[in-house]
Write a structure and sequence with these properties.
single chain, 324 residues, alpha/beta, Quinone Oxidoreductase, Chain A, domain 1, binds NADPH dihydro-nicotinamide-adenine-dinucleotide phosphate
Length: 324
């Protein structure tokens, strides 16, 4: 049996229910993993609220680290007893143990703790594809990165510094701005006390940035287009403030032949080899010290509703770990 958090209908944090479930044995292409730590991510909120619909009832949670307990037929990259971590579909990581497809589960290097693995896989592989697989960023280029003191944000600040990218962050309090600056942001704008569009224009001498990486969505999308250079790249990758409204292609022409993409990590992870390579690249960054995993807060599994409430209320910084 495994204590597991499920939802039976979409809604607020009160819909998160802790139940006991049978775990079972892995079939072909699957493993059974016993979790040591679980990661909390904003996608969990979208799945809980129904913005990203699931077939219900369904367990939640997209990220964890632990020990492989059993391996099904055809799984060759993992064996019983291995330390492992993942960011993967289907949801079900809010649990003590589970059976799941093995393809997106990755070996966890000895020097990386279970808590670090659970905190960094989803947000870290997101930064990996944003910086290396979405648009060819070059040293010296400028990126505007929203919510720079969040989970993805603090990893992005450090990653940018290590690659010679000038990252202009935004964050919701002066304290969060200081945190982003301490993690490698070149500048940080408190976008709740200051309009970030003129601030970015002033910081760039009116030129604008090469790329925007926007996980905030509705509240920042339009302003972000006004921060881009002509021919600039808008990468929209989240909806923390709500989903982005439809945008006219003519707007992109009028604002300087801009490019826009809406990415999701799971497209990049769908290929097994690419997923494993992304995880190896991330762990190289962690083990070299370029990226330090910043666990801002922890909640036990039984307090998962409180963890969701705090994440949605903008009370968290860095990554959040759910303890078992
Ligand atoms: P964060 O830790 O960054 O938390 C979200 C942050 O967004 C908040 O702390 C807050 O920071 C900011 N925010 C701005 N407006 C709101 C609002 N109205 N409600 C709540 N938060 C708001 O979360 P994650 O690091 O887990 O994820 C960041 C974003 O990236 C999310 O949108 C997530 O879905 C997305 N994402 C997308 C992926 C993809 O591949 N598409 C993969 C991973 C994450 P502040 O107070 O500083 O404004």
């Amino acid at each position: 049996m495994s204590r597991t958090v499920i939802i039976e209908k979409p809604g607020g944090p009160e819909q998160l229910k802790l139940v006991n479930r049978d775990v079972g044995d892995p079939g072909p292409g699957e493993i059974r993993i016993r979790h040591k730590a679980v990661g909390l991510n904003f996608i969990d909120v979208y799945q809980r609220s129904g913005l990203y619909p699931l077939d219900l009832p369904h367990p939640l949670g997209m990220e964890a680290a632990g020990i492989v307990e059993a391996v099904g037929a055809d799984v060759t990259h993992l064996k019983e007893g291995d330390r492992a971590a993942y960011a993967a579909m289907p949801p079900g990581a809010y649990s003590e143990a589970r059976v799941m497809p093995a393809a997106q589960v990755c070996p966890l290097p000895d020097g990386v703790s279970f808590e670090e693995g659970a905190a960094v896989m989803l947000q870290g592989m997101t930064v990996e594809y944003l910086f290396h697989r979405t648009w060819p960023l070059e040293k010296g280029q400028r990126v505007l990165f929203h919510a720079a003191a969040g989970g993805v944000g603090l990893i992005a600040c450090q990653w940018a510094r290590s690659e010679g990218i000038e990252l202009i962050g935004t964050a919701g309090t002066d304290e969060k701005c200081r945190l982003a600056l301490n993690h490698g942001a070149a500048h940080c704008i408190n976008y709740r006390s200051e309009d970030f569009v003129p601030a970015v224009q002033a910081l760039t001498g009116g030129k604008g940035v090469d790329v925007v990486m926007d996980g905030v969505g509705k509240d920042t999308f339009d302003g972000s287009l006004d921060c881009l250079k002509p021919l600039g790249m808008m990468i929209s990758f989240g909806n923390a403030s709500g989903p982005v409204e439809p945008v006219s292609l003519l707007t992109l022409a009028a604002k300087g032949s801009l490019k826009v993409t809406r990415t999701t990590l799971f497209t990049f992870l769908a290929d097994h080899e690419r997923c494993q390579a992304m995880a190896r690249h991330l762990f190289e960054k962690v083990q070299s010290g370029d990226v330090k995993v910043n666990i801002g807060q922890r909640w036990p599994l039984e307090e998962i509703a409180e963890a969701h409430r705090a994440l949605e209320a903008r009370e968290t910084t860095g990554s959040t770990v759910i303890t078992l």
